[in-house]
Amino acid sequence: MAEDRELIEKYGRPMPYDRNFRGPEWRNRRCTDLPCLLIFILFLAGWGFIAQYAVRNGDLNKLVVPTDSFNRKCGIDSSVLDKKYLFFFDLGKCIDPVVPLTGCPTPQVCVESCPTENFFWDKMKNSLPFGELKKRMICLTDNDKNKLNTIDDMQRAIDQERCARLYIKSAPFLNRCMWEFSPEVCERLPSFLLPRSKRTSSGSQNASPNANDSRGLLDALVADKSQLTQMQFEALALTTIPEPPAVKKQQALAEEPIIQCRRRTEQAETIKQKVRQTDTRLAKLVGNMVAHFYNGTHDSQQLGEEIVEDIINSWYVVLMALMCTLVASLILIALMRWFAAPFLWLSILGVLVGLGVGIYYTVKEYRFWQQTATVPNHSITLEAAVTNVLQKSSTWLYLSIFLSIAFVVILLTVIVLRTRISIAIALTKEGSKAVSSIISTVFFPIFSWILFVLAVVYVIAVGLYLGSIGEPSFRMIRQLDSNSATGVYTENCVCTGQAIEYKVGARCDPKIFEQNCYVNEFLLQRVPCTRTTCSFAEIEHPPFVTWSICYNVFGFFWLTFFIAAFSDMVLALTFATWYWTYKKRDVPFFTLGRAFRQTIFYHLGTLAFGALILAVCRMIRVALEYLDSKLKKYDNAVTRAILCFMKFFFWLLETFLRFLNRNAYIMCAIHGKSFCASAKDAFNLIMRNFLRVIAVDKVTDFLFFLSKLLLTGAAGVGTYYFLVHSPHLIQLHYNAVPVTLVVITTFIMTTVFFGVYSMAVDTLFLCFLEDCERNDGSPEKPYYMSKQLMRILGKRNKFPRQRSSS
């Protein structure tokens, strides 16, 4: 009895055979790593305090202040203190997928107010007087506008893009002059984004003539729409429809958003419908994206329109293909219990045959180019560079050597580890049985994704509010000049009075600078400095805010690692329960729900501990990246080498900790121990079975990758076959558009499904190793593994089993 009691304490399970044994559920679990859970709760409470502090003291308007083409903050910098709105010369160019990375490729200038009427130079230059034309002109600088003395000067400035050729009546949105929004967009805008202003009855009455002028302009432009882009024509059409008098009266008596959300009218809907038939905002976006990879602006725009049309027309085909892929994924996971072995061995054979063919081809090419004299292509193009590389015999020699080494390594690995590969195949079959028995585990990652998205939104919101807390810092600078030898403008800007100590590069105050700094070349009058400005540099955060930002970043790492650990623990508990249930038909129906409950009640502290270790390691890596960016200006080879080594070391450490944490969670799911004890048991168990671990890990990864490729390829081929042979059901410009969407979404979907499958195999593998070490097949200590695994290892239970575990 003493020996049995010692074994129970050592292994954590009863030695006498118990047909009701449930493995992870047998032992009375206790809360693990409770102190770390309390620390995590206190950390979250502190994070909540920082969040409410940030929301109460932050101002997001500081972060969305527009910047013009001269890098001046509208309404903040000295030269544009009274110009707080940003005007775009061609707003249509800003609808581009790379704009957040490269900026909008159109001149931008700060203005006192957004345009309240339409302007079209080519139509108005002969109909409006010179004074009215000059008044309506919007130029990059006041100096450019002052130089407009004749019509020719205006034409020259417009051709040089120093003044806008055309613009449409617009309204400020986040201090940016935007076209009036369509009713659909306005209905979806949050109310806090719509600042409101009072409008008087007289102002409403005065709007009528402008509306009539706008309608006349629209009628004039309908005949010649070539001068306008589709985006501008649509915006002009929507902004030039006068509203009924009753509506105007109602708007005059009530508050109306500055961003006007016009009511639907029959004429507006007709015009918008016609414009949509030829172009859409989505088509513009896709067209601009295609333009980066496709030659010709017109061709790319037309291609973008056709792609968008194909997406809209084929959405139900894509949805149907994804549903079929979902069903096929579940069927393939279920069939893995029978076809895993032939599928894997045929795949390995295919890889070896492919490598053999590659070796033959590279040797053949090497011999050909070794005996053939060629002249390199001197064109400076990517195609020419690739051609020159492929015409070198050394290229094919290196490729043949690489493929030969890969062939020999894979062949020897298969021969040496053939028994362990058989174990990996058997475990893959067991994983298929487990996932098929508890099919709800396949959809569990959706819950983790929702938590992750909420965490990301929370972190970004807190970070933005924290980043807006502080006082703005200004510095006296000179604007850059690409035509100057020094690279900057050499304006003789002199500061007196309160600004007498202002120097280039030093701190300054925009209002004091504007009042006391002038160009010294003019003696009779003070001319404000235009090329030297007091510009916004950064927001200087108080020390508490700086530490709060670091707190927020660390909290993001800790929370996201915790969510991932929670998902791993729930799945590990589920599949461990399945393995340690002797008769698989006795597995509880709500096994996933029970695992979810056990994780919440007992092991959140363990998850917080493991996530904390990874968060600390990731934070160190971020600190090293920040330190590297600060030390780049010193260009020290020693510091670069040290930082490079440290970054590689901590990357390697984090990779190892991820692997160890995953297995620690599995051991915790099996035995209910703390994180450190589980990590120690997992590490020792893996080291005692190192070759098995390598074989199972790589073989299963390879098998799952092939399965994902199979499903993705089948979905793509099936969709293409359906589109080609069903032209009477759907007509598309390019069948590749829906096929590409299906391939991308299918690969993502299968990655999620096989991620759960991979967790099942990893859990069953550690359970299998535990089973091998702690049991001997006797009636007192029977094996829980399947008959196939026992047959591979040459083991068997020494008594007849009433029910098969398979």
From TrEMBL:
Q: Output the Gene Ontology cellular-component terms.
A: membrane
Protein's membrane topology: Multi-pass membrane protein
Q: Which UniProt keywords apply?
A: Glycoprotein, Membrane, Transmembrane, Transmembrane helix
A molecular-function term among this protein's GO annotations? transmembrane transporter activity
Q: Which InterPro entries match?
A: Choline_transptr-like
Q: Which residues form a coiled coil?
A: none
As for subcellular location, the record says:
Membrane
- Where is the chain membrane-spanning? 36-55, 315-336, 343-363, 396-417, 438-466, 556-580, 600-621, 637-657, 702-724, 736-757
Could you tell me which Pfam families the record lists for this protein? Choline_transpo (PF04515)
Which family is this sequence assigned to? Belongs to the CTL (choline transporter-like) family.
Q: Which PANTHER family match?
A: CHOLINE TRANSPORTER-LIKE (SLC FAMILY 44), CHOLINE TRANSPORTER-LIKE 2
Protein name as annotated: (Mediterranean fruit fly) hypothetical protein
Q: Which organism is it from?
A: Ceratitis capitata
Tell me what gene encodes this: CTLH2
